[in-house]
Amino acid sequence: MNHRLANKRALVTGGSRGIGAAIVRRLAGEGAHVALTYVSNPVKADETAKAALALGVKALAIQADSADAKAVVAAVEQTVRELGGIDILVNSAGIAVIAPIDEYRLEDLDRTLAVNVRAVFVATQAAVKHMQPGGRIINIGSCNAERMPFTGGGVYAMSKAALVGLVKGLARDLGPRGITINNVQPGPVDTDMNPATGDFARMLIQLMALPRYGAGDEIASLVAYLASPEAGYVTGASLTIDGGFTA
Description:
Layout: E1 9-13, H1 18-29, E2 33-38, H2 42-53, E3 59-63, H3 69-83, E4 88-91, H4 106-128, E5 136-140, H5 154-174, E6 180-186, H6 199-205, H7 216-227, E7 238-241
Parallel strand pairs: 1-2, 1-4, 2-3, 4-5, 5-6, 6-7
């Protein structure tokens, strides 16, 4: 694989499984040293870190709940300390609680916003203190920021739509420093939390231009592009990779 990210230092929040793990492997495959955060499954986190190590880079797993702002800052600081700096931040940690509005619990609203929105800001604020020109911030948003075709997803869609405004505003803050910030907005992707089989998957596939779920590696390829020197003129953007879900 092209080592266009050789010796870059990256932190991927929520990087132990699913899309996050695919991003860790892709960045490592392109030469970046990678730290990842996880909440409760050290076995999966260690497996992902070992997969990155096998590609010849440094890798470490950090336990940090993204709902805890202090833990998020500590994870950034540990990354800087152990990898010698930070060049790339991928805010991949996220949760989705789907329920009708009459049944939606306020505590689920608060946790969704804490993980999907506040943690993105907190990690970004902590990381840019250490970033040099050429730094990259990449958020994993969702195509549901633009289209929510089923009931119960309003809070999740709101949390991902918030990232669209955040990157537009922070692009202005960070542009003079030579740091870019963007969203990647996946459509349905085959993971253990959202498998490509079953009634829910069949419903979503009927809404898409390409009649299939995406793969984590496909999302990771767009993240790797945004992290690369080739994407130096891309900032404040929300780039959709959804198989035509929003077409």
